[in-house]
């Protein structure tokens, strides 16, 4: 009787080990780097060969790519979305438009990487000599973040596909969700310091103007003071 019980126990052990095994966790692919169009590029042709680095997948899954092209830096006004199986895609866009693009890698199980950085470019119209600058790019404070202190530095980046242009900025700042009060006008620097009060939420935007008078209206950003 003892021998029978011993054999049953030995045969049961491999079954117990097999039942205790786990499926490997599905990890997201790596973030890609944008190659072309480069940041703030002026594109003569509106048929553009987009290019980015290959993503790798920790689980060796097959990777595809989601290309998003928008008419605003925040990518809420999407002009075109396209899926590609390689790290290149040719896409035809409108002429005379400022675009912003990014790429997200997706594995075969649907797991997405973090989106790439966002690059801006411009498709030039026929015979056009001056082009409006790109909308200002936020540096700090992070949009909808909470900050400490009673003095906050607002910082942004400006860019123009007409590389010879000189840019100036109008900065709107206040407690209204759509800021209408100009804090600074016609400045050439890309940061200012503002005085704030604890417990309040502030809104701001930066309009960018080139030396020919062409203007880009900025996105509204906000932050709350602890």
Low-confidence stretches: 3-13
Query: Roughly what is the average pLDDT, rounded to an integer?
Result: 88
Write the CATH architecture name of the largest domain. Answer: Sandwich
Q: How far apart are the termini?
A: 75 Å
Radius of gyration: 26 Å
- Helix/strand order: HEEEEEEEEEEEEEEEEE
Overall 3D form: flat
Oligomer: single chain
**How would a crystallographer describe the biggest sheet?**
6 strands, mixed
Structural class: mainly beta
Please report the first level of CATH classification, the CATH class of the largest domain: Mainly Beta
Helix content, binned percent: under 10%
For this structure, the CATH topology of the largest domain is Immunoglobulin-like
Q: What is the total number of structural domains?
A: 2
Beta-strand percentage range: 35-45%
Strand runs, count? 17
Assigned CATH superfamily of the largest domain: Immunoglobulins
Alpha plus pi helix count: 1
Signal peptide: 1-17
Keywords: Signal
Domain Fibronectin type-III: 28-126
InterPro entries: FN3_dom, FN3_sf, Ig-like_fold
Which terms would index this structure?
226 residues; mainly beta; Immunoglobulin-like; six-stranded mixed β-sheet; five-stranded mixed β-sheet; 8% helix; flat; disordered N terminus; signal; Fibronectin type-III domain-containing protein; FN3_dom
In words, what does this structure look like?
InterPro entries: FN3_dom, FN3_sf, Ig-like_fold. The chain is mainly beta. The protein folds into two domains: 34-123, Immunoglobulin-like; 137-225, Immunoglobulins (Immunoglobulin-like). The chain contains one helix and 17 strands. The strands form four sheets. Strands 10, 12, 13, 15, 16 and 17 form a six-stranded mixed beta sheet that branches. Strands 2-8-7-4-5 form a five-stranded mixed beta sheet, with no helix packed on it. A three-stranded antiparallel beta sheet has the order 1-3-6, with no helix packed on it. Strand 15 (201-209) and strand 16 (215-216) form a beta hairpin.
């Amino acid at each position: 009787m003892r021998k029978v019980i011993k054999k049953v126990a030995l045969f049961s052990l491999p079954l117990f080990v097999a039942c205790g095994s786990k499926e490997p966790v599905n990890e997201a692919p790596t973030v890609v780097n944008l190659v072309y169009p480069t940041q703030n590029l002026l594109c003569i042709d509106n048929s553009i060969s987009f290019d980015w680095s290959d993503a790798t997948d920790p689980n060796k899954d097959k990777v595809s790519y989601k290309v998003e092209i928008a008419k605003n830096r925040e990518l809420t006004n999407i002009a075109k979305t396209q899926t590609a199986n390689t790290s290149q895609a040719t896409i035809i866009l409108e002429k005379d438009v400022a675009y912003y693009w990014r790429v997200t890698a997706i594995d075969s199980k649907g797991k997405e990487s973090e989106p790439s950085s966002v690059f801006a470019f411009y498709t030039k119209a026929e015979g056009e000599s001056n082009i409006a600058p790109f909308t200002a790019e936020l540096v700090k404070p992070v949009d909808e973040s909470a900050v400490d202190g009673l003095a906050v530095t607002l910082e942004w980046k400006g860019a123009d596909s007409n590389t010879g242009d000189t840019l100036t900025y109008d900065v709107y700042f206040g407690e209204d969700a759509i800021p209408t009060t100009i804090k600074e006008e016609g400045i050439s620097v890309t940061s200012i310091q503002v005085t704030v009060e604890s417990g309040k939420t502030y809104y701001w935007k930066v309009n960018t103007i080139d030396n020919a008078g062409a203007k880009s209206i900025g996105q509204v950003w906000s932050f709350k003071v602890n």
